[in-house]
Amino acid sequence: MATNFYMQQDGGLAVDIESTFNIRVTSVRGLNPASPKELFTRDWAGEDGIDVYLPATRKKKATEVTMTCFAEKTDTKTAIDLYDEFCAYIFDGAIDYWDTLQLRKVNLIYNENKPSWYQFIPPQRLMFEITFLNKTGAIINVV
To answer: Which domains does the chain have, with CATH numbers?
Structure first.
């Protein structure tokens, strides 16, 4: 079964990452549920145990999502061109990401990219990692 990887920028049209940018997504890590934020506690000298403030709704910590991708030279574009186009697309605004394998949708903000390696001789290839921030830690299951 083939897996499709989608992104949607600020309410625009959803795009298939692999067919739109001619890059292959090899892994997406960090789509696990977020940890809860720490609870506020006080420890009084004259009492046993601690006082804990438990809010009505617990909040989640932000999470980090790392996407590893692979670009290979096409007839019209170099691997660097494909990489640059993808980085330009994700640079501004918030992006919704989901795929047909993990079936989890997250709202991401681009954080950092790191080319892992680049092969200069034909066929030109580039592997890179993109790090995103899921600022609310929220994950929506896609049906």
So the answer is: 5-35+61-141 (2.40.30.200)
